[in-house]
Structure formats: structure tokens, C-alpha cells
Structure of ABC transporter ATP-binding protein:
Amino acid sequence: MAPLISIQNVAQKFGTRTIFKNVSFNIEPGEIFAILGGSGCGKSTLLKQIIGLLAPTSGQITVAGHSVADEVEAVRKTIGVMFQSGALFGSMTLLENVALPLAVFTDLPAAARNEVARIKLALVGLGAAAARLPAEISGGMVKRAAIARALALDPPILLLDEPSAGLDPITSAEIDRLILDLRDTLGATFVVVTHELPSILAIAGRCAMLDAKAQGLIALGQPRELQANSTIPMVKAFFNRETPS
Ligand SMILES: Nc1ncnc2c1ncn2[C@@H]1O[C@H](COP(=O)(O)OP(=O)(O)OP(=O)(O)O)[C@@H](O)[C@H]1O
């Protein structure tokens, strides 16, 4: 099967500063793929490149067979994004937040948009909270609602930037469970940026680790395999919670 996302020899420079170079890996349909690495190594930059918000300095990215450089509109139709901040509109109910992409990108009438939004909220366990405002719900519920909004247009690929950030361990584990369930029920592919080791071990089939000092990829593989066998100090340190030697 062709890879769903193909990243080939990708580099990003800002001015004369290289963030990363020679980054290459594929993501297969149905995977939950984690992108890891310390602050500033370029995780969010790579997500922006995948959705065509930032053109790589060099290299090629294709998504579902479409070149991001040449066919960005086709690429965007295949991807739902949850940004790090969650970014729900505070003055809108959860139902209105989830229905918003349907109003912007489809010709569905309001009643149908609301019905789809209700279904997406039910999928993430928020069926009873449709009329609430973001300020009235917990941090975990905000993340769920943001995931529901990313699902609004039924994209085959979901990019989640730190879905567990700021959550307690139990709520974080509930978000992990939700991601696994959505992958299984929808057959969607997930690309998840995260720092949370328990989440990575719980959900990711494979992961890629970027490193600022190495200016690129330092590990690619199954998390438990990397945890057990990597000899790279930064990778060992991350997976075994040690100070790098
Ligand atoms: N548009 C830009 N112009 C200049 N520098 C940038 C730009 N965007 C990002 N950077 C720099 O590139 C580096 C990588 O940023 P990025 O946000 O991708 O890191 P990250 O791995 O997602 O970090 P974090 O875990 O802190 O979110 C950082 O040093 C950042 O300051």
C-alpha cells in the first residue's frame, strides 16, 4: 500500500538558522504516529509543512498522493487539525464550534450542520454538553470538543498538536483511549505531537524523534523497541526518563 503521508529529505531554515534537514519517513494508513522531541526541535514546524502552512526550504511532502507544494487544497481536504491551544471560540457553544467548519466548507443547511456536529460531539463523549460554552467545561472536555471539530469534515487524517498538554494523568489517559477508539471506529490515521511518554507508549504504533542539536531525526520506530534498544543518548534519556549522558 502507498504511504498516506510521505516526507522526503525535508529541511527547514529560518534565515541562516537550520531547524532540521534530511528528514524522511512515511506514515501508513491507520497508524497512530507520534512526533517527539524537546522544545524547539521543529515538531510544530513539521506539522505546518504537512498541512501546507509553511513551505519546506527543501524536500517533498505528499499526502494521500497529493504534493503539498502543488496541490495544497486537495491535501487540506484530507486533514483535520487540532492546534496546541485547542482554540475553541469562547462565545460559541460546543455545537456551534463543531458546526463551524461545516458552515465554512460545505453547502449543508443549518439543520444538517447541527446534526453532523451532534454526531461528532457524541463520538467524543460530549453528546450531553452540546449547549455548553468552552468556559463552562473542563480542560479534558475542551480537548475532546477540539477533536470533534477536527473530525467535522470526516478527514481521513487527524493532526493533533499536544492533545494531552496541561491535563492530569487520568484525563490524559482518557484522551489516549479516545484516540485509540477513533482510530478503530473511523479507521482514521493520527499524527500526534506529544511530550507525554505514557501517551506515546499507550497509543503510538511508531514514532519519529527530532532533536534540535542534531538538526533532524534521531530515531524512527516502535516506542517500546526504541525504549529497549536505542543506543542514542537523547532517545535513551527520553524513553527511560534519564538525564542524557
Ligand atoms: N516563522 C518562524 N520564523 C523564525 N523562527 C521560527 C519560526 N517558526 C518557528 N521558529 C523557530 O523554529 C524552532 C522550532 O519551532 P517549533 O515551534 O517547530 O518547535 P517545537 O518542537 O514545536 O517546540 P515546542 O515543543 O516548544 O512547541 C524554534 O526555535 C522556533 O523559535
Summary: The mean pLDDT is 92.
